[in-house]
Amino acid sequence: MTERQLIFEDHFDGPTLDPAVWSPHYLPQWSSRAATAAQYERKDSCLRLFIPPDRGLWCEDDHTPPMRVSGIRSLGLPLSSLADLRGSTAAANACVPGSVLAGDPARCGT
């Protein structure tokens, strides 16, 4: 059996998410930063994501049934590499075939 080594651990004990590691947005390049902002709380070394009842729809014209989201993502790959793709359909994580990159991917993690 291959031995595994822990390379990163976060206890979410700080006052905010570490912006060098986490983006508090769910695929903002396909919507907007406001519509993709995660709702979360940090307590007792845990991160709890939640979706409030009044949360708007994410990419509301693209999904049946409609979706509400709250998510964070690790910044393992630099989103700045997508900066030249704004307005194109060529970005790797299209939620719907033919989707156009709407947000500014260079700012997705900031």
Query: Taking Cα atoms only, what radius of gyration do you get, to the nearest Å?
Result: 16 Å
Give the N-terminus to C-terminus distance in angstroms.
Answer: 39 Å
The proportion of strand residues reads 5-15%
> Would you identify the regions where 5 or more consecutive residues have pLDDT less than 50?
77-82, 105-110
Task: Write out the strand line-up for the largest beta sheet, numbering strands in chain order.
Answer: 1-4
Tell me about this structure:
The protein is largely without helices or strands and 110 residues long. It has a domain of 71 residues. 4% of the residues lie in helices and 11% in strands. The protein has a two-stranded antiparallel ribbon with strand order 1-4. A two-stranded antiparallel ribbon has the order 2-3. The longest helix has 4 residues.
Question: How is the topology of this model organized?
Answer:
Blueprint: E1 22-23, H1 33-36, E2 40-43, E3 46-49, E4 73-74
Antiparallel strand pairs: 1-4, 2-3
Task: Describe what is shown at a glance.
The chain has 110 residues and is mostly loops. The chain is 4% helix and 11% strand.
Give descriptors for this structure.
single chain, 110 residues, little secondary structure, two-stranded antiparallel ribbon, two-stranded antiparallel sheet, 4% helix, 11% strand
